[in-house]
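Methods, example record. To illustrate the input and output format used throughout this study, we show the complete record for Membrane-bound lytic murein transglycosylase F. The sequence lines were provided to the predictor; the line carrying structure tokens was produced by it.
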Amino acid sequence: MRSTLSHFAQQLIKATCLIGLFAACALLVDSRPPTKLEQIQADGVLRVASINGPETYYEDPDGNLTGFEYSLAAAFADYLGVSLEIVPTHNFGEILDLVKTGKTVDMAAAGMIVTKRRQQSVSFSDPYLEISQLLIYRNGTGRPTELESLFGRKIMVMEDSSEAERLSQISAQYPQLEWSASADYNSMDLIEQVHVGEIDFALVKSTAYAISQSVYPRARIAYTFPEKQPLAWAFQQSNDESLKAAANRFLTSYKADNRLANLEATHFHQEPAFNAGGALAFTNRIRTRLPKWETLLKETAANYEFDWLMLAAISYQESHWNPRARSYTGVRGLMMLTRTTAHELGIENRLDPVQSVEGGTRYLSKIMTRLPKGIQGQDRLWMALAAYNVGFGHLMDARRLARKHGKNPNSWDDIAEILPLLAQRKHYKNTRHGYARGWEPVNYVNNIRQFHTILAWHKQVEQRRLAMAETTILSANEHTTESDLRSSL
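The corresponding predicted structure is encoded as:
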């Protein structure tokens, strides 16, 4: 009996020890610090370092952030089930420092090329794009055909950029090659400097050149470096690669269903400029498309005390009078309203021509009401149209910048000179709303003014023809009456 009890006690002690061991293991598991990914998901925020600019992020006309890098990072944040916080920086050097310490940002999304030097500081995701590095020159100055033709010429790149790394490597072999790196210019600024002849050459990414072609047409490609350059997100070097692994899974799925290709087309696509071919198409559409919408445009314009021909010109600029039009940016309908604007105006169907025209006109009228009283006459309309296109905040930035440059903030001609400066880093870095494709509202207003002039001319011709036809009919009637009178006599 005593032996049986002793055996039972021994088994009980063993079981207790095992239970204690399992409990200790469970406690160890529970006390494991959360991974980087788990911490972000618990906090509900993904903090991403980036640089305000055309290839990365900027404000759209509704005041919302957009841009290739922003859109891709936002999609990743959605994938993780968290919100996105953009942490603005001034250059790639600052980004590398922030990512390396990992205190204020979780990653960087800034169109960064993977280089050996950068890999010493940070860890990179799988590449999501492959781009080229381009040497840009000014058309008419002679395209360089050999390296020696660059010696003694002015070449510029962005500071802390991969392009600066490349030129540093080349100049180590060829000391005659002179170049400089600017902390004040982004890629678009450098391309503009080539376009106007301030510098001889610039080395930039192909993505920047794609955006610039319709804006700075004198800037041409002198040479394309043959090696494709991978763009990737940057992460802190750490044994914990949970966030980076999640990013790679996301990028794989995002590429697989063509969402990445669509995003690239959206942000690096350029709308064709108004030209002779466009003018011919416009005159044809006055005859074939405008009659269908003329009554709607006239009635809506009358309700808001607008010139109906101006409203017709605006709607043509927006959609070419195609009620089912859709821009590469996602705006839709005759007046190409964004989803945000449509929601703000209470518009349920952007493809409904009546809702679209009425909503677009009401929105433009609201902008005109918001403008400062000092803006008078046609200047008020042109500035309202510019705000309709680029956003009210960016227009206000341009007015503040105009004052700084000694220009008249109430003059459209002066504002048209200033707006393109919002695409230059040395100017937009000190504005409230940051980078904007400032040349676009200028082209937008100029196109509408041209369309309005052509429409007015066509209507005058039409009225003259009607008047001539009426005169001919009256003359014929008078002749008939006179003949009848003679016959009766």
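Annotations derived from this record:
Residues 370 and 384 are 9 Å apart (CA to CA).
The mean pLDDT is 87.
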